[in-house]
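Marked as duplicate of an earlier ticket. Keeping the data here for the record.
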Amino acid sequence: MALIKSCRNNTPKIPSTCWLAENATIVGDVNMGENCSVWFNAVIRGDVNTISMGDNVNIQDGAVIHCTYEKTKTTLGNNVSVGHNALVHGCTVANNVLIGMGSIVMDNCVIEENCIIAAGAVLLEGTHVKSGSIWAGVPAKKVKDLSPEMFKGEVMRIAKNYRMYASWFEVENEK
């Protein structure tokens, strides 16, 4: 069972439709939407500020979601995929966003809807990513617009697939 801890009189709110890996850690002021999944060794730390997640969010293996005390909250919209070992900190991420493996999203960043942050990208503090774009590099810059094919084939496919992957474990746990 995942490690779920209260902190500063805040207990994570996790709907029964969510799937949590046994070694995921969720702490404090965390509000998860429906059908989310938190994978192996992922950490969602709402100890210093609020973390809000929409529906169908997946936090993949080793990712960290955090915020800054008395400064920044973290908000993730619907259908957000946070790739393996990514760090998402004190920022706002709109609906239908893929944050690639090993990427870093710093405080006060805003990622509008329908975007991809490429694997290994570093969004410096205060970066504003406009809707429908792909950003890559260190520091990250816009590299191109997101095509409808890439939106469907990457952003939405991954969000959908992670809901399916979670269902495999739910079935195993019922045996």
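See parent ticket for discussion. The longest strand covers residues 43-53.
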